[in-house]
Amino acid sequence: MVQYLDKNSGFAQWNANKNNTQKKSGLGGFMWWFLIFVAAWWTVGLFMTPPPSNTVAPDNTPVVDLSSVPTAEISSNDITATVQGLRISNVKLSKFAVSATDAAPVSLLSADGAFAEFGLIANGTTAPTATTVWKTTDGKFTWRNPDGITFTRTISVDGYDIVVSDEIHNTTKRDIAFAPYARIVRANDMTSSAGVSTGAVALANSDIERADWRKLDKRSYAYQTTRGFVGFTDQYWGTIVNIDSPDQTMTIKKAGELYGADVAASAIAVPAGTTTKITYNLFSGPLEQDVLNAANSHIDGIDDIIDYGWFGFLARPMLWFLNVLNSLVMNYGLAIILMTLFLRLLMWPLTRKSYTSMIAMQKMQPELQRIQKLYANDKARLQMEMLKVYQTNKTSPMSGCLPMLIQIPIFFALYKALLISVQMRSAGFLWISDLAVMDPYFILPILMGATMWLQQYLQSASRGKTADKNDITAQTQKMMRWMPILFTIMFAWMPAGLVLYWTVSNVFGIIQMYIIKHQSK
Asked: Which of 27, 29, 45, 242 is the most buried (most CB within 10 A)?
């Protein structure tokens, strides 16, 4: 029986072939995990697409009769808003249209039951309430309570900031105290993309705290802080309140079908015969970095409320660079193309190394196959000899993956930047009316899939049809042939600006490949 087990026996040859067939490549394993990751990410995004928002005030929400309270309008070059007693609502953003087909201005706090309210809780006397009728004189609102205490409210607008100032003049002979409060009440907006954090936001003890709408459906939140702010953010807009006072308590909770974000400060003493001033701030505008930087002078820390995602260190400069390019070419589609070319040129050394490594791997295959057959029964020697071949040719199976690994954070950073970019909203390019949403005709996803297939075809064209079935590169390319189909389906529902980036990147990659192949010859 020994003769059937020697090195020249059929059993030994079968065992060698079996080992070669089962040989797995590290590159192939990476690609399988990458495919699984992309498919899972797309699937989660597909099933987590939020349902339409509910913007109707429920019957069980207490309704205050404000019919006897007169209204007034405040305005600036950026916004107009309605003031009714303690409440501010119907904030219209003059520079932002509802959509590319609807020129009406975007309106915040305009749904039934939505408002921002700024008031006082009195101790030992009375304070204005939501139903209080104020006297209006020269843009100031005044009210005098039965004890003779005079309240004077001044409302000014600075950009997208509404500043509310209350002066309390205590004409009595006793000391009194008032605890100021501010709150926002509104419905949810779950129509925004699942890739953007929408819901409540607060600054408590120098930390930004977030709670999306689904979390608010399950529980309420409370924070104790020395100065801060609280409010809500949507995909593009934010409504934030704060009080210019230390020692604050902030709460975020759901009441019926509406959501409330409140901040209450410690009581402020108003000695007899003195006047005390209390200031509140309301930001109601776009989540645009320059706008928030300006608003930071009124609401400290508001410039950090934009959710840039995991790769914010890339998304933030990319968004800035995209806006700079748009200011030069006056079109975000062209700006995306220029930024794509810039990124590809920036990664040219890595891409060149990747393609050069791919060509070297193709030339190494006959030698690698010979080694695999020669040392089929000695795995340690096989690994050592293959390592020598890689060192001699100064390459490795993983070197071709480097540009792809680098593009993953760039891809996610750009994805986030396009989702949160207010400027990208309603920005048109060719047949696309809004680069922030999907291509309605699926033209770009198809072009992206086609260019991706062409790029892969050119990579494998020089290999011919006689590649060994145990060839590592051949195994990888066999798995990669499904990538264009998978990516076309996945990108069909993504922002058109992101698909435009990937398509242009593919085209530039094809050109790079031709150049590198020509130079290598």
From this structure: 242
